[in-house]
Amino acid sequence: MVFSGRMVRGYCVLAMLAMAGGASAAGTPTLVIDVDSGKVLHSERATDPWYPASITKLMTVYVALDMVRSGRARMDQLLTMSENAASEPPSKMGFKPGTQVRLDNALKIIMVKSANDVAMMIGENLGGSQDGFAAMMNEASARIGMRDSHWFNPNGLPDERQQTTARDMAMLGRALLRDFPEHADLFRIPGIKFGRAVMRNHNGLLGRYDGADGMKTGFICSGGFNIVASASRNGRRLITVVMGERKARERDLKAADLFDQGFSALGWTAQTVESLPPSSVTSPPNMRPVVCGGGRPPAEEEGQTVASGNAENPVVSLLAPTAMSFASAGAAPTRRTLGPRAPFEPIPVWIGATPGTAVAEEETTSVRKPRASRMSARPVRVKSLSRTAAASIPPAARAFVQNRPKSIIDEGKVETVKAKPQPVRQAAIKAAMNPKPALGGKKAGPSVAQAKKPGAPAKPPAKAKAAE
User: Fold this and answer.
1) Between β-strands 191-194 and 347-349, what pairing exists: parallel, antiparallel or unpaired?
2) Domain count, the chain
3) 350 within 8 A of 105, measured Cβ to Cβ
């Protein structure tokens, strides 16, 4: 049998994936549920442990909204950026320690920008510390029924102890929509505007898939590209969870395919998301060899018009299941595209209590004013300007300038440092530089002709020099 290069590469990656944590060729975790009934429309490895990455921030939002509901926090409450939070690696806003942000703005930022520094700021301010907030996350997680999730930080940065499952994340998404319907818009913000910078949501389904209305994405090398997505059509709302994809576009395309199958399913199954049986797998696989390899990690960025990863990538084709376990018979996912995002109006966010209380561009390392703008805002030092220009003015003319009205000098006008006098004052300056002969027939100073002789600088008269 002759193997092509693409087949060899595919089998090699399968072997790497198996060695990385026991993952099988059955595919990475996926799950589709009906929000209202909780019925499972599709499930594959839904209870296998996995590294959540930034979908962790959905848990952070749940705890924060729960505290607001119970009166332990307020949406307009100011949170302060600590040195520890400011030192978190990207994705981040780059706020300096001491910067204050309202809780509502902080929640918008982590849902769109997925800023790790802002998520840590939320945790430290609401929980007293990272560990204190993690304990609150675990308590809320258990109350929701997320039996396989363990939280140690509020942003999803790599921690081998922090893990979850597709089942638990679907239950969390359902709990957010059920318990806080008044905040549903928080999960569908297409983009935010901070100062002059516009940042779009990493969720590549928003504005590209008909009916997509929110939730969160996440990525770390060990967990791959994850998403918890929601979509609504014809009075039905579904939640789809996809974990462990190699690229953001493959994640989005798989989620779109699963939504298509879910909306075409009848939903007559008796199994609910709560009743999914535990997995025999005890630890998450490390996806780093497959997702990042030895090169530069892929960025959490979305493409424009893309084709199906299943058709283009042999690895995805080999890892993908051959049949979908939907309640109703349906065709396997087909080649598809997601076009460019629809135009959107970004939601403004700011630092401080109210808009305009602080200049956002001055408080972040990623957004700065243009150089000309910064220079024009500096105060003019009149003293230094006058001193510099005075060196080129003849002594007599300098004395005349110094005797001008003080209000003109204080205003810092350019005319105070001009060497050339105004026409109306030329006679006075000429008289000062070429006085008439004194009584006794002796001249007090050089003549005008002598003063203008090339190469011979004018010398001030003795009396004028004494006066200075």
Assistant:
1) parallel
2) 2
3) yes
Q: Are residues 283 and 399 both part of a single domain? A: no
Residues across the chain:
468
**Same domain assignment for residues 399 and 286:** no
Domain-embedded: residue 378:
no
- 348 beta partners: 193
Is 54 marked active-site?
A: yes
- From 54, 141, 222, 308, active-site residue: 54
Residues 17 and 285 sit within 8 Å (Cβ to Cβ): yes
Tell me if 61 is assigned to some domain. Answer: yes
Structure tokens that stand for 173 in this block: 């998404």
Closest by CA position to 290, among listed 89, 33, 19: 19
Q: Which residue range(s) make up the domain with 181?
A: 28-295+340-357
Same domain, 353 and 391: no
In a domain, 305, yes or no: no
**82 is known as an active-site residue:** no
Does 350 share its domain with 286? yes
Mean pLDDT of 169-187: 97
Q: Are residues 351 and 406 in the same domain?
A: no
Q: Is residue 271 part of a domain?
A: yes
| Residue of 43, 82, 91, 114 marked active site | 114
Given the residues 57, 92, 113, 254, the one annotated as active site: 57
Give residue 355's pLDDT.
87
Looking at the DSSP assignment, which residues form a beta bridge with residue 188? Answer: none
Q: For residues 206 and 155, what is the distance between their CA atoms, to the nearest angstrom?
A: 22
- The set of residues, in sequence order, having a beta carbon less than 8 Å from that of 269 and lying 6+ positions away, is 39, 40, 41, 327
pLDDT band of 338, cuts 50, 70, 90: confident
Q: What pTM value is reported for the model?
A: 0.69
Is 57 annotated as catalytic? yes
